[in-house]
Amino acid sequence: MSTSTVYAAGGVLWRVTGGRLRVLVVHRTTHDDISFPKGKVKAGEILAETAAREVREETGIAAPLGPPIGDTRYALPNGRDKIVHYWAMRAKDRAVRESTFAPNREVSAVEWLTAEKALKRLTYEFDVDILEQFLAQFENGARATFPVVALRHGAAMSRKDWPRADHLRPLLPKGRDQAKALAGELRAFGVRKVVSSTATRCLQTVRPLSKALGRPIAETDAISQDAWEDGLDDVRSVVSERLAAGKGAVLCSHGPVLPGILEQLWLETGARRASRVDTRSAMSTGSFTVAHISKHEPERSIVAVEAHSPLV
Question: What is the rounded distance in angstroms from the CA atom of residue 156 to the CA atom of residue 278?
């Protein structure tokens, strides 16, 4: 990221009530405008994490990130450029009922509008553009999605410096910091199932996430590096199970195994090559790829793919 550019993130919260699509807009007190909830990135956050936090803070509604929509770019009064990234975010009925919103110095009110009304009432043309992009995405199948996340373990001790069995190699301090950061980053996408290689470095990577979710780690040799090197891995069954479940999941594995996991996702969802992340390029330690998969297709299909690198 450029240090002279202001980065921010937000979301288009949506729900269907009475058979009609509605989106949430915020009435901002200080700016006297109507826009989508958003805010600036805090130190140590990736953009996705910022989006989830800012939407929750401004609207009182907790919702997971769905597919990325796009970004807006404009100049601030001080001459600096500002880039705002947006995600689609489905607001479930319970989350709306449990909203903690109260009028404050920043936001005086929140309002659910039909898409038609929102297009007319949004103050800024760039917000209208984001809404139009969301509506196109919505019509193309992104009505309800779940994420399958392919995650590479955090930075670990090298093989040459580790005297014991490879699967016992632990994370370095940097890797442990990555694991802590990943807990917040992955929760932003609404993952609920944690699947991991049995290797120590993978288990240590997802342990903070498992603890934060209050859910156990499903350990499997099927996506371990030892099994892959021996030709005994079973990526297909692991991916197929996650797609059949239709719920957000993270699969923590290894550099040599992850291309196969991603390729299996593409094969089983019929993903167009244009929507793929290049499976030939190595993922750095602590990085992850999110495949947003449609829930309501006769066969699972990928709506969008995004990749994230660690800040640590």
Answer: 24
